[in-house]
Design a protein that fits this description.
This protein is mainly α and 233 residues long. The longest helix is centred in the first third of the chain and has 39 residues. It is globular, with a radius of gyration of 20 Å. Keywords: Cytoplasm, Phosphate transport, Transport. Pfam families: PhoU. Plays a role in the regulation of phosphate uptake. It is found in: Cytoplasm.
Length: 233
Amino acid sequence: MTEKHLSSQFDSELNGVSSRVMELGGMVESQIHQAVYALAQFDPEAADRVMETEVRVNAMEIEIDRELSSIIARRQPTARDLRLLIAISKTTANLERVGDEANKIARMVKSIIESGSARALPSTELRIAADMASGLLRKALDAFARLDTAAALSILKDDDLIDKEFDGFVRKLVTYMMEDPRTISASLDLLFLAKAIERIGDHAKNIAEFIIYIVKGADVRHTSMQEIESALQ
């Protein structure tokens, strides 16, 4: 078997597992959209669909991880190829965790529906933040497909906006609870939802960092924005 043929097989395997990651990303995006719809419409059936998809997301994450382990064991890749496989593994894990956060939102929405106590609270801001987080994840997946470091850098900056939305929402909930202690229980439910949404943004940010790791070989976690921009020049 020629070296060229071995390389072609390896490229085919990489393309295959990358396609699976994109498929997983699509499933997770669907979970987020359904969770946001469930929150916006107080729709228990939409929440149920999120939880049903979670089973398939978990199964696919395990399948991709096994496939990656097999490729590494058989091909013994080096340098950038190994970085790519490691980053794919970490991206898959982050996507699965995004699914977990969407599942948390769905479960909490069902709880809120059953209690009937959150309709007067500021859930509109929460839905806006959820749309932002979903959009950030979509950008991260698109950037990952192209290994686009410029887009990755933009995602890192955009995550700060979601963090600011979260901080503002927390302050608003605190105000509600101080003005009317009867809203404390429902406000804490919404705070739980807000934290789950913020975590979705964090996972999108993680994927953006993996893109930079693949292309530049630099671990930019816990690194200032100025240092990241310098690394990409």
